[in-house]
Amino acid sequence: xxxxxxxxxxxxxxxxxxxxxxxxxxxxxxxxxxxxxxxxxxxxxxxxxxxxxxxxxxxxxxxxxxxxxxxxxxxxxxxxxxxxxxxxxxxxxxxxxxxxxxxxxxxxxxxxxxxxxxxxxxxxxxxxxxxxxxxxxxxxxxxxxxxxxxxxxxxxxxxxxxxxxxxxxxxxxxxxxxxxxxxxxxxxxxxxxxxxxxxxxxxxxxxxxxxxxxxxxxxxxxxxxxxxxxxxxxxxxxxxxxxxxxxxxxxxxxxxxxxxxxxxxxxxxxxxxxxxxxxxxxxxxxxxxxxxxxxxxxxxxxxxxxxxxxxxxxxxxxx
Length: 319
Fold this sequence. Notes:
The protein is an all-alpha fold. It contains 14 helices and no strands. The termini are close together.
């Protein structure tokens, strides 16, 4: 186990370095100049070439892409995440202000999708071939096919604009700080973000439950006269949930990284929305740190899921 852990940590660090360089290279190839986003067009037109060059020099934008990348990476190793090119705010502060909102939204979406998806998946498996199974299967396909932004816009139109039941956007009103005060703002984006994951978990739980229903130990339990509900919901459910738990664990970092669209639709002040703004403004340091955070979360989650799988199933060996 120790050798496996050390090897995986080394692989994670190497993959983080390669991924960061590729992202930085792609951003550098994008057209435009960060200075054009930092200075308004009128002021930019009045600046001389010498002033523009001095500004680029002060921001560390000169030199080759290799040099700039390693200068940035050296700062990361020393705990210096740099400053936003467009606002001048420390990136540490930007992440500290936006990451909690994204984590809150992602956890809410994960809880909603895990509970609803698991219940519907098990119900679909127990009603295999019936109308309920067919309806849930079609609903799952629809949920996985329609883009999230479409669900978001429809939800805003119905529940916020037409009915007025829920706020139209944002995380909270002025002066609100308690969780239950801002809960109405969380409902719509969490449900919309979790819909796609709900469909996936439902299909996965259905398949796992049907597979578990054919196991020998369930036939033995039935032969002993144990009630069918107990066989399915206690013995079968416990076995069927093992792969579903793995799927749920892998989806949390995907929710954090995939919240860009939902945060933009609902004006949620999270790290996904900040990432989109940083990409548009060619804010290289901020884009790199957010991308690094998302990649790191995905890799660590995958590693922890491997350990969890080995703990849940003794037949799995980590080598």
